[in-house]
Amino acid sequence: MVFWEFGVDYIKFFEKRDNVEKLLKTIEEKSHAKEEEKKNIKRQQGLISEKFKFKVELVPGCSVTESKTVEGETPNTIRIESKHGGLILITFTPASSPPDPLTEISTHINLQYHEQAPIIPQITLRKLTSKQQVAKIRGHKVAMESYEWQDQAGQKGLVEGYGLWCDKRQRTYLLSLRTPPLTGQKKEKEQTNDLRRVVGSLRCH
Predict the structure, then answer these.
(1) What is the pLDDT of residue 117?
(2) Rounded Cα gap, residues 86 and 58, in angstroms
(3) 68 contacts: CB under 8 Å, gap ≥ 6
(4) Superfamily for domain range 55-200
(5) Residue 130 and residue 74: Cα distance in Å, rounded?
(6) Which stretch of DSSP H or E encloses residue 102?
(7) pTM as predicted
(8) How far apart are the C-alpha atoms of 186 and 192, rounded to whole Å?
(9) Are the C-beta atoms of residues 130 and 114 closer than 8 Å to each other?
(10) Beta-strand pair 156-166/140-151
């Protein structure tokens, strides 16, 4: 009976020409928006590759900005923000020899969340894990540290830091991701995995 009532409403909806036209227009607008988003992602990926000589694969809804450490210097940090509130920072610096990745990661994370306290809302960090050679990003062995962040309102989320050194490029790469507040909803896991996919897609040669 419920199905039949739904079917009647469905038929009535399509009997009106205005409804059909509105539906087709909505489908067309959404399709156009998706195509524009794909083009924007490719454009941003191309700019990163051309300017900084490494590649990342962005996910839909990302926006990219650059940061300078000193006025006039070439930017050495890429900031990738997700429409869901997640954040990825990719910092790259010249290095003549492999640094201690875990030390570099800890320093990198602490600089972000302590020295930049006037910019970033006050956040406390609790270390969860610290591992050498936990994963590989395009052939590089990668160290990783993970933290739980908590703000003054009691909201909590994850911070993950990854460090790798490229012999060919003679660069140290430090990548960190921060999730928005996590409440246990199923969709949040996929959103966090999207951030990890961007981090894991890095190719420096």
Answers:
(1) 42
(2) 13
(3) 74, 75, 76
(4) Mog1/PsbP, alpha/beta/alpha sandwich (3.40.1000.10)
(5) 31
(6) helix 101-110
(7) 0.77
(8) 11
(9) no
(10) antiparallel
The pLDDT of 83-104, averaged and rounded, is 84
The strand pairing partners of 70, in sequence order, are none
One-letter amino acid of 87: L
Distance CA 183, CA 126 (A): 18
**Cα gap 105→174, rounded to integer Å:** 7
Give, in degrees to the nearest 5, the angle at Cα 104 between 45 and 145: 80
- The 10 Å Cβ neighbour count of residue 57 is 13
Beta strand segments in 4-84, E: 62-67, 77-82
Query: Residue written as tokens 């003679």?
Result: 170
Q: For 60-74, what is each residue's pLDDT tens digit?
A: 888 898 765 555 555
Half-sphere exposure of 204 (CA within 13 A, CB side): 22
